[in-house]
Amino acid sequence: VKFTLEQINERIGGKIEGDGAIEITSVGSITDAGVGQITFLANPCYIRNLSTSTASAIIIAPDIKPPKDKNLIIHENPSIAFMKAMELFCPAPRPVPHGIDKSASVDPGSEIDPAASIQAMAYVGPGTKIGAGTVVSPLSYIGEGCTLGQNCLIYPNVTILDGSQIGDNVIIHSSSVIGSDGYGYITVDDRHTKIPQNGIVVIEDDVEIGSNVSIDRARFDKTIIKQGVKIDNLVQIAHNVTIEKNCLVVAQCGISGSTEVGEASILAGQAGIGGHLKIGHHSVITAQSGLGKSIEPKSMFSGSPARPFQQEQRAKASVYKLPDLIKTVRALEKKVKELEEAAQVNQDT
Amino acid sequence: VKFTLEQINERIGGKIEGDGAIEITSVGSITDAGVGQITFLANPCYIRNLSTSTASAIIIAPDIKPPKDKNLIIHENPSIAFMKAMELFCPAPRPVPHGIDKSASVDPGSEIDPAASIQAMAYVGPGTKIGAGTVVSPLSYIGEGCTLGQNCLIYPNVTILDGSQIGDNVIIHSSSVIGSDGYGYITVDDRHTKIPQNGIVVIEDDVEIGSNVSIDRARFDKTIIKQGVKIDNLVQIAHNVTIEKNCLVVAQCGISGSTEVGEASILAGQAGIGGHLKIGHHSVITAQSGLGKSIEPKSMFSGSPARPFQQEQRAKASVYKLPDLIKTVRALEKKVKELEEAAQVNQDT
Amino acid sequence: VKFTLEQINERIGGKIEGDGAIEITSVGSITDAGVGQITFLANPCYIRNLSTSTASAIIIAPDIKPPKDKNLIIHENPSIAFMKAMELFCPAPRPVPHGIDKSASVDPGSEIDPAASIQAMAYVGPGTKIGAGTVVSPLSYIGEGCTLGQNCLIYPNVTILDGSQIGDNVIIHSSSVIGSDGYGYITVDDRHTKIPQNGIVVIEDDVEIGSNVSIDRARFDKTIIKQGVKIDNLVQIAHNVTIEKNCLVVAQCGISGSTEVGEASILAGQAGIGGHLKIGHHSVITAQSGLGKSIEPKSMFSGSPARPFQQEQRAKASVYKLPDLIKTVRALEKKVKELEEAAQVNQDT
Questions:
Q1: A272-324 tens-digit pLDDT
Q2: Are C211 and B180 an interchain contact pair (Cβ–Cβ within 8 Å)?
Q3: Which pTM was predicted?
Q4: Chain pair A-B, CB pairs under 8 angstroms
Q5: ipTM of this complex
Q6: Which end of chain A is more exposed for a tag (fewer CB within 10 A), N or C?
Q7: Could you tell me if A263 lies within 8 Å of chain C, comparing CB atoms?
């Protein structure tokens, strides 16, 4: 594949500075791209790489000072522009064969759309419906009474347990588990008796779920992941949780039972969220924070236990002044004692 | 299915207030249950939902002020009572076919009880014994020389590696791994040489293990999970760990090598426990804490590194007073300086 | 199997004290080993077990005071010495059958070395090359266009996705996922559009990867795990990360996108590393720390957000003095007020 910078820009709709006739054969990152490659600058961390890059062309934003002697495309959103450029050079994905692989184990009581793809050694249980364009990759398990919509992509070694309801355009990465039992016991004299977990998991359209994610079924009712939510790897979502539309849940987060995460909220990496809480919409919980109480919409919380971000920042910063503060207070104690003694002497004389 | 409130109460053994003849067709949570449904109040978080619930009946404890105009069952333990009610409405689990699915790969040198169920595309290695009533779900792997007792439920895509010994009534959820190698190397000049991990994992009766859990085999000897322990999702248990009876290990905890967790202890979510420690029985490590030393029985530790709970609470709370404290000390410094100067003047005159 | 202590020492090359003719039949840990077993002392935690051990022989270092009336091997490195002793007693691993199991699903367009072992119900995609001595265990998935070198051990239920390049002597434990998509979206008006993840994962020689690990493919270019790196269980490695040679990444760590971890660095358990950072070689990030900025070689950082270890230790320790410090400052305030009033009176008179 080979395109001139002008041909690429026709697709992108930016403004060329430099040689539009230069030939580009592939894409690369700002740190690595060389001759024949196009790259882009979106993250300010890499601004120092602009002048040293040997890439044949760079996509930059109009507010960036253009480097000298480089071929550029100036574009309002270099990330989106680069994504479009990348599509030019990406090989078309291998077409997926429709139908059921002969090594798959598919229950005769399931309904598989003829345009779905059930691949080698996949399992589909009775009463399960799978829509057109959906791919169940090798070695994945879809239990009994599930629904998968259209154009879903289920990677290998995924487990989707009985009763799960999954919408359209959902992507689930390998080793993730949808519908394991919620963690619920009644304890009498140290012995824990299992509380039946009879609910289901509902995953709406356009959700993406990373690898090694656990999403537990509800005790009754539903654990719900709403439209457009994106979940990273190794995330724990407990029973009866609701995640509203368009939330981002970053790697290794854990959300405890029955909590509701408001629309378009962001839970950063390794954050932990307590049970039975409400997180208002458009909130942010920073990385490694531990949220123990419900919070208002548009909140930003940080720390463990989490506090409002500004308060936490101020308190954390002041901790590092503490060793010096202790010295100051010791010195003050000494001086005050001297003043008291002097005053005593004064009074006595 | 349909029961009157009286019929339900016959099973529960509580005291009805209101209309015992009302018909109930299903169960629901306090926040969602409506007409025709029975619900319960156990968690005080939801007490505000009592008066607004449109559920046809509610199970509450005798110390809760009963809402007006509701049909109630008063019961000492609403959780247990509701669990019994729920069982009335739950469909009986699909009977599991005994025997070995023809697509499973079972070594002829294994011993499978005729009343066990080895399902589609499961693997069982040589020398492994599997007891009556135990289900090995599709796509699970049981290695060589393992023992699984009676009535175990092994979910799909589980991996149980060579030599693992598993008791009766054990539940293991999907994508969990029993018997991966412990993380042990001898390092000379930056190069890490693997220490052979030749021990096994022993899991006693009545243990439940969540999804995506890793339990490493011992270097030699055994990693042991004792009777009645309940482990949540995404937990890490390193080599040579011992978890005594009836412990609760909540999601995303990590326990380092050779540590012993005392009976009926609770490790809350995302807690990390150092290696070679002893945690006394009935101890609690709070969420996200990091324990770096051994602790006495009945301890409650918090923070990272963890300290006794009360001490940690007091210290954490005082941190948020620190920005004001710093201002106070600065003001004191100024005043003391003024007093010193005044005293100097006094002396000079 | 049975060896005299002298026969064992011939293999180890230490110095015997006590009865070299005593017969040893197996190995055990310092806390558990009894008659007929050999054990060792490497971790000072267990020095108290030396005198009470009933093991028939103990390997100790020359700087340890030898216990009375015990049969000993004195050796500079008891861990290595014990490892050699253990090998005497370990059963030889079951020989792995070469070739492709008839229940495996192997694409005819793949190249499998005749001395490789593709086991029951494993999947290998088109264009993939697998080297001599490499074992692909039951139920593992190797996608399209991958390369696996020689003598790799891929445990059951592993997923290696399209294009992954894996060197020689690599071990990957169960339920781990190599090459899931990086977590990358472009967000406009709360809606997240997936950024294609077209790069690959490269894993060099002698790497070991624990169970339930997620390693994401690069957006373009490569996510690289270099030679000799050892990764524990449940670790998250995001897209475009580079881990240099001989690093140790302990359980439940998370490394965010595009970060570079310098050679022979150690990331302790549950540590979180931000994105686009550079960690200098031979650095240490302590357990549960959260690193938010790049650090110099040979740094040791701790806390969340992480600070230099000494500074963090001092600050953390001082926090527990804070409740008392607050009392001291309150008392000082009172005294200073009294001094001021006295001074005022003085002046007035």
A1: 999 999 999 999 999 999 999 999 999 999 999 999 999 999 999 999 999 99
A2: yes
A3: 0.91
A4: 184
A5: 0.90
A6: C
A7: yes
